[in-house]
Write a structure and sequence with these properties.
about 240 residues, Rossmann fold, six-stranded mixed sheet, 9 helices, 11 strands, about 25% strand, elongated
Length: about 240
Amino acid sequence: MILNTRPEFYQDRFHAAFAGIGLPILDCPVLAPESTGVSLPDPHSFDAVILTSQVAVNLFPSRASWLSKKAYVVGPGTEEAAHAAGFGNVVCTGVDAADMERNLAHEPFSKALYASAEDVAKDLSEVFPNRVQRVPVYRMVPLTDMPAGVLSAVTGNEQIVVPLFSRRSAETTTALLGNANVTTTNSRLYAVGISNEVFAAKEGPWQCRAVAGRPTLEAMVAATRDVAEDIGLISKVMQ
C-alpha cells in the first residue's frame, strides 16, 4: 500500500503518477491549504510574479492586472497550473528552490511579488531584498488527529510506503503518528523523501528512509517503486 499524505488539491495528480506502481493508495491529507485573506499591493508596482506551488497559483487572484505579468514558477506542476490560470508569460526556473534562486539571479525583472505560503523553506525576499516582495497568500493547516481508518491500516500487518513531499508534511505526519503511539514495532512504514531536508527535523517510525534521486514527482515515483521492490511488495515482473 501507498499512503498519500499530500493535500487534497494534489490528489488526482498523485493517483495518476503512482497508479503505475500497482499498489492500492490510501489518502490521508495531513495539511490543508487555507487563504490568509491578505490584500495584495498595487500590481502596477511589479513587473513579475513568483509562484512556487500549485496551491499559490490556485489562491492567487485571477485579475488581468496580475495575469499580464511574467510568472516565474518552479516545477512542471506549478508551470501547468500557471498556464491554466491565465498567465500568458510563464518561465519555469527549474525543479526546486535552489534552481529558482540560481536562475532568478539572471532574470531581468525589476520587482517581483512572491505569493507564498506562510511557512517557506526558502524566503526569496531575503535572497533578493531589493527585487522581491513576499506576501503570504495561504497557510497550510495541519490535521489534528490521524483518521481511524488510516490508523487501523497503519498499525495492521501491512507494509506501507509513505512518499513525503515536504519538510512540513513529514513533520506533521511524524507528529500524528507519534500522537497515536505508532512506532517501529507496531507498524511497517517505509518513508520516501523528496530530499534530505524532509528528514531533517524528526526521526519518525520508519523501518527505513529513502530519498528520491531528484526533487521531482517522477523521481518520487521511481524511489517509491524501488522501496516497494526492496521490501517485496512488488516484483520487477509487475513493472
